[in-house]
Amino acid sequence: PIKSTELVRLCSSKLGWKKSTTYTVLKKLCERGILQNKDTIVTSLVKREDVQQYESNAVVEKTFNGSLPKFLTAFLSEKRISEKEAAELKRIIEEAAK
Questions:
Q1: Of 4, 30, 52, 78, which is the most exposed, with the fewest CB atoms less than 10 Å away?
Q2: Planar angle of CA 47, 31, 39, nearest 5 degrees
Q3: Sign of the dihedral defined by the CA atoms of residues 36, 41, 42, 48, in that order
Q4: pTM for this predicted structure
Q5: CA atoms within 13 Å, Cβ hemisphere of 56
């Protein structure tokens, strides 16, 4: 939760938005059930994990035509992962395949 005045300040400094822009976007997000603005306190109604899942799926769909193998190939092409990370990825893939 954050006070709407603090949100306006943050949006101004980080995004260069005017006060009116911030309140317009806030109003639209409230109408869509993503945020709540009650008594000047803005609260998220959507879990961070849900947003991350939506954004991840959108990237894979848009950039890699929905191909998770193409995404992983591009992501890992220049990156080294540890044995522990590789084992964790294998476990996640095996669970998803069940």
A1: 78
A2: 80
A3: negative
A4: 0.62
A5: 10
